[in-house]
Design a protein that fits this description.
Blueprint (H helix, E strand, L loop, with lengths): L2 H29 L4 E16 L5 E15 L16 H6 L6 H29 L2 E3 L4 E4 L4 H5 L6 E5 L2 E2 L3 H9 L6 E7 L2 E7 L2 E6 L5 E6 L2 E3 L3 E3 L3 H28 L10 H14 L1 H20 L6 H14 L5 H30 L1 H6 L3
Antiparallel strand pairs: 1-2, 3-12, 4-11, 5-6, 5-7, 7-8, 9-10
Helix pairs in contact: 1-3, 1-7, 1-8, 3-6, 3-8, 3-9, 6-8, 7-8
């Protein structure tokens, strides 16, 4: 794998996800009668662009780490309020003069587009390549393991783990791998009756192709087998929606544990780590790239819904205050909010990038040059 491969794969994946996100904002804005001045992939100086018949400037810019839609009346790409008084005709197409419900719908549309896109990607994979599927039934309990000590038996069928419904053995694997050493409640069916077994997955070390080690959970049970099941379109959408919900819920639980300090933050990845992962997946095949894109699309949608000023969730937070107060927050309060949001986003990016450098041992490699 070369650096060029990783960067190229990362930029392709990111560009598609950003386009989907901003297109969600754009389509609902046009539906609600808002004039869109700019649709940009990337930030900074324009590389290439064109203006359509409605006056929207579509462009690709030099810094390919995001994008934005600029509505008529915005004084900046963060959708700050209008900087001048407007005529009645201008207010008619101004985002900031639209009813609260319309503005909220435009803001929600970006993250919503990412979730819909993830469902479509998963559905496409399940309908063509097939869905990895193994019935969540234990074929064998390995001796001297956590599963054996907790009382699991062959024939037990997993139903639920810590509130997560289990439909496939793969669901069990995802949850156990992500929770080494944490006590979990496993609901199983045994001889037709539900029973709950408590167990803390053991810990074992996995080494990736770059020689990096990470700790994952290990239970000690084996399934009866594995197969790829091709779904018809309706089934594919159903299972894709379920997988999107499963990933969303698991991500929120993990983030909550990170904030509470009960889960490590080592797996938090920034642009460098995602670029490396994109390059590795691109070498495996097109299907895995689509699956990675679906997972990242869910993450992008979730992150943007966090109630942090500057993100979509921050705008929704301001709208909630407006709904309660009956009028928007003052310009100064919004300005301070956006500054705080920018600081939080930058700190998160720095932290995630530092995690990337630690995982890739960048510091050690640099020291080795001297």
């Amino acid at each position: 794998m070369t650096i060029l491969t990783s960067v190229a794969a990362f930029l392709v994946v990111l560009t598609v996800l950003v386009f989907v996100h901003e297109m969600g904002h754009y389509l609902v804005a046009r539906w609600r009668g808002v004039k869109v001045e700019t649709f940009s992939i990337g930030f900074g100086q324009e590389i290439v662009g064109w203006t359509d018949r409605t006056g929207t400037r579509w462009k690709i810019s030099w810094v390919p780490l995001g994008g934005y839609v600029k509505f008529f009346g915005d004084s900046g790409v963060s959708s700050a309020g209008p900087a001048r008084a407007m005529t009645p005709a201008e207010r008619e197409v101004s985002f900031h003069h639209k009813p609260l419900g319309s503005r909220a719908a435009v803001v929600v549309a970006g993250p919503a587009a990412n979730f819909v896109f993830a469902i479509l990607l998963f559905a496409g994979i399940y309908a063509t390549v097939g869905q990895p599927f193994t019935t969540p039934v234990i074929a064998e309990v390995q001796p001297d393991t956590v599963a054996a000590q907790a009382g699991f038996r062959g024939g037990d069928r997993f139903v639920e783990i810590d509130g997560f419904a289990v439909q496939r053995f793969e669901d069990l694997m995802q949850l156990v791998l992500a929770n080494p050493g944490r006590t979990m409640d496993f609901v199983v069916l045994r001889d037709g009756e539900r029973m709950t077994l408590r167990a803390a997955p053991g810990t074992r070390t996995l080494t990736d192709r770059n020689g990096k080690e990470r700790q994952v959970g290990y239970l000690g049970v084996r399934s009866a087998g594995f197969e790829q099941i091709r779904r018809n379109p309706a089934e594919a959408l159903w299972y894709a929606a379920g997988q999107t919900w499963f990933v969303t819920k698991q991500t929120l639980v993990t983030v909550g544990r990170m904030i509470a300090g009960t889960a490590p933050t080592d797996d938090l990845r920034g642009p460098v780590g995602i670029a490396q992962l994109s390059g590795e997946v691109a070498q495996i095949g097109f299907g895995p790239v689509l699956e990675l894109m679906a997972l990242l699309s869910i993450s992008l949608g979730l992150i943007n819904l966090f109630p942090v000023p500057l993100l979509d969730g921050g705008h929704l937070l301001f709208y909630a205050f407006e709904a309660v107060r009956g009028r928007p927050l003052g310009p100064r309060a919004q300005e301070y909010g956006f500054r705080l949001g920018l600081a939080l986003v930058l700190m998160l990016m720095v932290f995630a990038t530092w995690n990337d450098f630690v995982q890739l041992d960048v510091v050690g490699k640099v020291r080795g040059l001297f």
